[in-house]
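Milestone 3.1: sequence recovery, worked example.
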């Protein structure tokens, strides 16, 4: 029996070969630390060494701690200057608003005619957009207030509330409907299209409460 067991035992070279084969199995490779583990461990050791009172047998100077903290604070300040503070969800602070005109350079009368055609076809979204543009273009043409190409619907409604204070709420609601269609892609209703058309007619027949000069003072 002892002779048989001795015969089954591998010699030194064969034993090493068996060991190498065994270690090549996936279960051993998976247990080894990954590159990420090694990098994370190196970074952790470095950060820990910064606050270790003894580094390489020498006393750690508090001045170096102050310098490192100052550098970190400076980096944070620079990051705030470049990227600003975290902004979160702006929808809770400021309503989105689209520009009124985009590249549409038609006159108020042309915009009204196009809006009427859209209304006859039941295209309420286009009616809302064109009618609101007609209101803004008409105010600009009358010299009531300037409506530049980049002005948003909400900005126009706020500016137009001064010369047309009796229509303040209607202007705000119309700007909201315009933004719903243009910005949020929400479909407009026939009632909303008719409401903005009525507002356009009402403002067109209203004398501004303030002169253009007073409106910009």
């Amino acid at each position: 029996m002892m002779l048989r067991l001795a015969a089954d035992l591998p010699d030194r070279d064969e034993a090493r070969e068996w060991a190498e084969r065994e270690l090549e199995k996936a279960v051993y490779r998976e247990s080894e630390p990954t590159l990420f583990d090694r990098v994370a461990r190196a970074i952790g050791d470095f950060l820990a060494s910064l606050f270790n009172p003894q580094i390489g047998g020498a006393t750690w100077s508090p001045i170096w701690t102050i310098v490192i903290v100052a550098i970190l604070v400076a980096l944070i300040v620079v990051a705030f200057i470049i990227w600003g503070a975290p902004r979160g969800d702006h929808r809770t602070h400021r309503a989105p608003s689209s520009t009124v005109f985009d590249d549409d350079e038609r006159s108020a009368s042309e915009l009204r005619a196009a809006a009427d055609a859209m209304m006859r076809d039941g295209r309420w979204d286009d009616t809302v957009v064109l009618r609101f543009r007609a209101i803004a273009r008409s105010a600009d043409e009358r010299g009531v207030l300037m409506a530049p190409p980049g002005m948003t619907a909400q900005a126009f409604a706020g500016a137009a509330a001064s010369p047309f204070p009796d229509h303040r709420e209607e202007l705000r609601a119309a700007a909201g409907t315009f933004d719903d269609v243009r910005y949020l892609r929400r479909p407009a209703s026939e009632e909303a299209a008719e409401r903005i058309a009525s507002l356009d007619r009402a403002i067109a027949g209203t004398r501004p409460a303030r002169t253009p000069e007073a409106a910009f003072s």
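Confidence is low (pLDDT under 50) at residues 1-6, 87-94, 211-217. Residues 12-50 form one domain.
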